[in-house]
């Protein structure tokens, strides 16, 4: 049964979050380009960063890929190429668990680094903590969702996926979202909170791809001082005849 609260969580909140996400990025790019950065703290501390950052980013890329495949690709497409629902579920659960562990592990290292390294902690603002907490909550919910769904094998491609794709043709199926287990609903709703704050955090650096690097001109390095000729009395600061090329 759909209620006013159901429409708020599954219709109003998603569209508000998407509007803030798009308009916030436009505003940030127009008025705060100098702040459009990851605010790297590599100079402050490198030991923990070299472990936490790759774990977090590779895990995040894997999680995003899994969500794109599970939410945006209809179930009939995977069935058409011979992937059964059970095989898909096993693969999604296994890959999702690995991605979630990588994300949680990386976040734990990065969070500990911000707490226990004074120079890194000094560069961390309130909005950074908000983003970090939201990322942690969403990642933990993802692990719980995967663990709970392992024995259930709930076909979320027939519930949450239908609702999500419906948002983009202005016809979100609220009843489909409500048919999903509660943990799926909480996980989906929590993600919108992150999209609401995304434009105002350092997460905007995710859209800064250095594609120009692929076509950059070669950098020519020159010695600071010309190599002295290999002749006695003419090298370095030694006396040499005026007018003789160096």
Please give a quick description of this structure.
By secondary structure, this protein is an all-alpha fold. The protein has nine helices and no strands.
What do these coordinates show?
This protein is an all-alpha fold and about 250 residues long. The chain has a single domain (about 10-215), classed as Up-down Bundle (Fumarate Reductase Cytochrome B subunit), CATH 1.20.950. It is about 60% helix and about 0% strand. The chain contains 9 helices and no strands. The chain has helices at about 5-30, 50-70, 75-80, 85-115, 120, 125-150, 160-165, 175-180, 180-195. Helix 1 packs parallel to helix 9 and helix 6 packs antiparallel against helix 9 (about 180-195). The protein is elongated and about 95 Å long. It starts with a helix and ends in a 49-residue tail after the last helix. About 15% of the residues are buried. The mean pLDDT is about 85.
Gross CATH architecture: Up-down Bundle
Main beta sheet strand tally, sense and closure? none
**CATH homology superfamily:** Transmembrane di-heme cytochromes, Chain C
- Domains (count): 1
Poorly predicted tracts of residues: none
- H/E element sequence: HHHHHHHHH
CATH-derived topology: Fumarate Reductase Cytochrome B subunit
Radius of gyration: 26 Å
Q: Mean pLDDT, as a whole number?
A: 86
* Count, helices: 9
- The counted number of beta strands is 0
DSSP helix fraction: 55-70%
Strand content: under 5%
**Overall outline:** elongated
* Ends distance: 89 Å
CATH top level? Mainly Alpha
- Structural class by secondary-structure content: mainly alpha
């Amino acid at each position: 049964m759909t209620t006013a609260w159901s429409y708020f969580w599954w219709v109003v909140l998603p569209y508000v979050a998407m509007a803030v996400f798009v308009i916030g990025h436009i505003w940030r790019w127009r008025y705060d380009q100098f702040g459009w950065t990851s605010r790297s703290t590599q100079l402050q501390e490198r030991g923990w960063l070299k472990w936490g950052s790759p774990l977090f980013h590779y895990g995040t890329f894997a999680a995003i890929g899994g969500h794109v495949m599970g939410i945006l690709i209809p179930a009939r497409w995977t069935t058409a190429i011979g992937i059964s629902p059970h095989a898909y579920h096993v693969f999604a659960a296994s890959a999702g668990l690995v991605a979630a562990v990588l994300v949680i592990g990386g976040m734990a290292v990065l969070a500990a680094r911000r707490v226990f390294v004074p120079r890194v902690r000094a560069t961390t603002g309130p909005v950074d903590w908000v983003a970090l907490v939201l990322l942690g909550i969403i990642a933990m919910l993802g692990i719980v969702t995967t663990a709970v769904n392992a024995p259930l094998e709930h076909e979320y491609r027939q519930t949450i996926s239908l609702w999500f794709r419906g948002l983009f043709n202005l016809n979100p199926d609220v009843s489909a979202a409500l048919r999903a287990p509660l943990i799926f609903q909480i996980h989906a709703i929590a993600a919108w909170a992150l999209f609401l704050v995304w434009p105002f955090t350092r997460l905007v650096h995710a859209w800064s791809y250095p594609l120009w690097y692929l076509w950059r001109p070669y950098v020519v390095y020159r010695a600071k001082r010309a190599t002295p000729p290999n002749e006695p009395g003419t090298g370095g600061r030694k006396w040499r005849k005026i007018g003789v090329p160096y």
